[in-house]
Amino acid sequence: MLQIQASHEAAPLIDDNRRARLVFCLVAATVMAAALLALAASLLQDPDSWWHIKVGQDLLASRTFPTADTYSYTSAGHPWIAKEWLGQVLLALAYKTAGWNGVALLTIAVVALAVFLMSWHLSAWLKPTLAVGLTLVLALLVDPVYIARPHIFTLPIIVVWTAYLFGVARSELAPPLWLLPLLCLWANLHATFTFGFVIAAFAGLDLLMRIRLSNPRLLASWIAFGLLCPLVSLLNPYGVKAILATFTVAYGNEAVPYILEWRPFNASEHGFQEVALLAVLFGLLVSRLQIGWAKALFLVFTLHVYLTHIRFMYLFFLLVPIVLATEVAEQYPALSLAKWMADKRDGLERFFAKWFYQICGVVGVLVVGAIAVLTSAYQAEPSQKTSARDALTFAESHHLSGNVLNSYNFGGSLIFHGIKTFIDGRTDQLFLNGFTKTDTEMGRSGGKPILQEQLKKYAIDWALLTADDSRIPFFDELGWKRAYSDKYAVIYVPGA
């Protein structure tokens, strides 16, 4: 009788603990959303956002999936697939609904969701206060990836995918089949879905480390899940081509070294991240945290991918803490959720639990109010560093037409405005066979003959260059006329 009474008394406490956790995680998501709302325009400064939206618009209009390039004249007709078609459609729908404000709001909402999920999964093992604080620091570290492009939609997915797979491996259970539709969604949103295969493999290794060969049936279920992953990923408009496209970039795409986001980690440019990396390594060495060889390999893998290509910094900073949270909680109980649940609730936590629904309502009102303010009183838009808005207005008013030689950063805006490009951000599939290398060499010392050759080869009728484009002096020397210039862009036309 006493045991039954004790269990009934414990139930409200469990509910209170869960509610307090939820509020902590909602606070983390709200803080992140508020910070991004204050800097909404910064989410729109990537030149590729323009062409992603345009591709999404064209997909909605034509209801067909492209298989060849129609957006440039230098690679026209070459094989090209919109492998991130669903992410592009979502961006196009957001733009159609509320312009660039809609795109910014959608991006903010997805990042806030990822922060909520991150803090929720970390707080399943660590104290909620620690989980929330750690999540916000990690979210700040990966700030460079918060841009309005299709990869942003994968952040919540990769958090859930990693947390559940390593969670069931630790519990020595079969992987849940509901994760497969999530992988299918991922495969249609962005090409990084192949990381899902790798994460599943590392989780399987973690299980193997725990049970060895003692449970063949369980191991068979994991092998079957691993085989189903690539099969489920084929459920996209391009089938196996979408998978092959990711490996083409990862293993030898010649244009990759010339694109900033694909370059290796540079400590002089990412000092904050360097400090974080050194702090993580110092902490692991000093704490002597025991994580097992499978998770150690996962840490090394994510670190390798990050140091090789800075665009993948989020794999290390977001996923490694999720994977190691269980060991931290077990080996340092003072930091664990169990310790927090056993402690007497403080005033703030009791307040969160008691007024849970009211707090959720207030948060909802604040979010709706912030959205209303952003959409009515503030107009977020890309900088002219990528839009060349005034320069393109000049080009249209002066009826400039024909083949344009453009700076890389203006390629997306040109596509958006229906002007075929010389080069743009689709270098993972196009502008190969030395093209991107030649484009880079045109602006280097001694590049004038190369530029002159390209002008003739592609019958260039005008040029749209960023104000700091290193080819500008060569155009002057070749007798081209500067028809327009501002602090963002320069337009050249052939001299008389």
From TrEMBL:
Coiled coil: none annotated. Keywords: Membrane, Transmembrane, Transmembrane helix. It comes from the Bacteria. The chain crosses the membrane at residues 21-44, 98-117, 148-166, 178-205, 217-235, 275-300, 312-335, 355-378. This is Dolichyl-phosphate-mannose-protein mannosyltransferase.
